[in-house]
TrEMBL record:
The lineage of its organism: Eukaryota, Cryptophyceae, Cryptomonadales, Hemiselmidaceae, Hemiselmis. It comes from the Eukaryota. GO terms for biological process: intracellular mRNA localization. Residues 117-170, 202-236 form a coiled coil. This is Uncharacterized protein. Residues 21-40 have a biased composition (Basic and acidic residues). One of its GO terms (cellular component) is ribonucleoprotein complex. Keywords: Coiled coil. GO terms for molecular function: mRNA binding. Residues 1-58 are annotated as: Disordered. The keyword DNA-binding does not apply. InterPro entries: Bfr1 (IPR039604).
Length: 368
């Protein structure tokens, strides 16, 4: 260093000094430090508090799972009891089904008889109405009476009893109407002759209908008796058994609670992860702030050192302050050489040595 200083002094005397460059406008260290903005502090997330919340939620889920296991066992027991009750009530159920099928057959018979009676009544009423309407439109009920009246009118015309042509035309018109009435009277008499006395058929249908109603009433009484017997047997087999509907309802509610707890766990983990990310971002910004602040302070110390050395008339590089721990160390050269050797050897050594090979080498070294 002394030799380098002497060479620098000789060069300075040999060559004329260049005019100093105009200093650039630079900010002071205080201004640069003032421009640095320290980030707002972010609290470190409390891992213990989050673990406590998660433990509490997992404990609640465990309680729900335990209760669900109990409900499942109770439902299995209820199902087995129900199977036993099915075996005990199988005969009664078969009889009840047979009675209901018999009642359905009797109901169909009753409906058939009722429909036939209804059709017969409607047909009879329609026929009677048609005959009544036809009878109202007829002046005579017999063809002989109509022919006799026609002969009387013809005799009036032959004997010249008509006073004028108008009266004669009216008589001829009446004769024409009477001749047409003969055909209507024939239709009326033919329809009256087709009217059949259906009293026996109606009585038979009424009897069949009454028999079907009686059979239905008997089936209903038998069904009521069988239903009471069935209820009594089921009550004996299911005595003391839990309410299955209430268990299913509770099971559904427990599944909903577990779903809500798991959603809360996801929310807690997400919020904690977000807080951790915010804290890491704060640490990164804070480290950058400290690095920039340290750099400015180091430059400030360097500048103060140089100014003090210049004022004392000593070389600037003499005893310069540094952050390197090996500067001034008695074995600094040896330490640097070892560090360089370690870097060179690291290039040629494998990065990840397998454990099996190291164990085999150790065994080989221990072998005689």
């Amino acid at each position: 260093r002394r030799k380098m200083a002497e060479d620098a002094e000789s060069n300075a005397t040999a060559t004329p000094a260049e005019p100093p460059a105009e200093p650039k406008e630079t900010k002071s260290f205080e201004e640069r430090l003032a421009e640095l903005k320290k980030p707002d502090p972010v609290p470190n997330p409390d891992q213990d508090q989050v673990n406590e919340k998660l433990s509490r939620l997992n404990a609640q889920i465990g309680q729900c799972d335990k209760r669900l296991s109990e409900i499942k066992a109770a439902l299995d027991k209820a199902n087995s009891e129900r199977d036993k009750s099915k075996d005990a009530t199988k005969g009664v159920i078969e009889q009840l089904k047979a009675q209901r099928a018999k009642m359905q057959v009797a109901s169909r018979k009753k409906e058939e008889c009722f429909q036939q009676l209804k059709d017969m009544t409607q047909a009879r009423q329609a026929q009677q109405k048609s005959l009544q309407d036809m009878r109202r439109s007829l002046k005579f009920q017999d063809v002989g009476e109509v022919e006799q009246r026609v002969r009387e009118l013809e005799a009036q015309i032959e004997q010249g009893q008509c006073k004028n042509m108008k009266e004669e035309k009216s008589v001829l018109q009446e004769i024409k109407q009477l001749n047409a009435m003969k055909r209507t009277i024939g239709e009326y008499q033919s329809q009256r002759s087709t009217v059949v006395d259906d009293t026996e058929t109606k009585a038979s249908l009424e009897a069949r209908k009454a028999a079907a109603v009686a059979e239905i009433d008997a089936c209903k009484k038998e069904c009521e008796k069988l239903e009471k017997e069935l209820d009594s047997k089921r009550a004996k087999t299911t005595e003391g058994a839990p309410n299955v509907n209430e268990l299913w309802k509770e099971q559904k509610e427990l599944y909903g609670q577990i779903k809500a707890y798991r959603a809360e766990i996801r929310q807690v983990n997400g919020a904690f992860k977000e807080e951790v990310n915010k804290w890491r971002d704060y640490q990164r910004v804070l480290n950058n702030f400290k690095k920039a602040q340290g750099k400015i302070l180091a430059e400030q110390r360097r500048a103060e050192w140089e100014a003090r050395k210049i004022a004392e008339g000593e070389p600037v590089d003499k005893d310069v302050p540094t952050d390197d721990p090996f500067v001034g160390h008695p074995f600094a050269d040896e330490i640097y050489q070892c560090s360089d050797l370690e870097k060179c050897l690291a290039v040629y050594l494998p990065k990840d040595a397998p454990k099996a090979d190291s164990s085999s080498d150790a065994k080989a070294a221990q072998a005689p």
